[in-house]
Amino acid sequence: MPKTDPDADFDGYLAACRTRCQAVLLPSLDAGHGELRVPAGLLDASRYPFENTGKLVRPVLCYAAAEAVAGDIPPGADHLAAALEIIHTYSLIHDDLPAMDDDDLRRGRPSLHRAFDEATAILVGDGLQARAFELLARAPDISENSRVAAISTLAGAAGLAGMVGGQFVDISAVGETMDLEALREMHLCKTGALIRASVALGGIAAGATEQQLARLDAYGRDIGLAFQVVDDILDVTGDTQTLGKTQGKDALADKPTYVTLLGLDGARAEARQLMESGLAQLAPFAANARRLEQLARYIVHRDR
Ligand code: GRG
Asked: Residue 177 and residue 208: Cα distance in Å, rounded?
């Protein structure tokens, strides 16, 4: 019997999930309907950040979580996965603004406010955020209860007590000292909340039980934090070309990170420990959690 290559198999899975998400996401960036139309210049700017896609980790986590529950990916997961990527992309656009991280490079190209202008970048971010929730509200193939649960979960994760709150603490922390617990709390919100919601939305799309959702949530919490630990490591060890964003920004901005607090080896150990803890949550899903397991390893061992 020919041996299958597990890495090639996972690469194929990533590619299939990305294609599936894009098939819903890209057409959703349309010019509107009836009398309410997106102005041409704004439409071009809104599509720009999706021309060079990122890793689409959040949609793939959503699909993999749905698969852990249902055994395969239900069609109801597609709009949820696309909405997650749209919210993530809006956050990157705003994160790059001069008032935030002030970064000229994103996904290997000029960031949106550089390619267009600052006011356009703010408006595109705002518009994308609304478009993501429009997509969720119109999601087919899921029950009304699941649709409302998905909207509520994503709004909570993206909002004041989630990603935006974490960003606020991050910006306020520049030049300040922060202990590990405070850093963890900040990243649970800033990066972790959306990743955690990605896993939850997959469970919701697949009709997970409360117990299954709790397991997925614990996995998502650990993996979300692990993602940020690795992001901090790559900011030190990566290179700008591979990352597609400016390497070394954290040190330049004098930001507290997992590497400044734990050192490189300590940060690597922290990422591994979070991965193991996340993997331990998957036992009840047995073989259906294979993709979530591979994703946890991918997140921790990635180079961009
Ligand atoms: C409303 C003004 C305003 C701000 C919104 C900007 C913001 C609040 C929050 C930003 C949160 C943020 C940018 C977190 C960083 C998370 C992170 C590690 C991003 C990199 O994600 P990847 O590696 O990127 O998945 P790709 O390019 O692969 O999609």
From this structure: 41
Ligand 1 mutation target, pool 167, 227, 232, most atoms within 8 A of CB = 167
Q: Report pLDDT digits (tens) over 116-134.
A: 999 999 999 999 999 999 9
For atom 26 of ligand 1, the residue with the nearest CA is 54
Look up the domain containing 274 and give its range: 6-301
pLDDT in tens, 144-173: 999 999 999 999 999 999 999 999 999 998
Residue 26: alpha-carbon gap to chain centroid: 17
- In whole angstroms, give the CA distance from residue 282 to residue 274: 13
In a domain, 1, yes or no: no
Across the chain, the runs of DSSP E, i.e. the strands, are 32-33, 36-37, 105-106, 109-110
In a domain, 10, yes or no: yes
Whose CA is closest to atom 29 on ligand 1? 54
Compute the C-alpha angle 266/267/268, nearest 5°: 90
Distance CA 218, CA 248 (A): 31
Residue 50 domain-assigned? yes
pLDDT of residue 223: 98
Listed residue (166, 149, 271, 144) closest to 202, CA to CA: 149
Cβ(80)–Cβ(150) under 8 Å?
Answer: yes
CA of 163 to the centre of ligand 1 (A): 8
Provide the number of structural domains found in the chain.
Answer: 1
The ligand 1 atom nearest the CA atom of 168: 8
- pLDDT grade for 23, boundaries at 50, 70 and 90: very high
Q: Is the Cβ–Cβ distance between 215 and 260 less than 8 Å?
A: no
- CA distances 116 to 40, 43, 108, Å, are 13, 12, 16
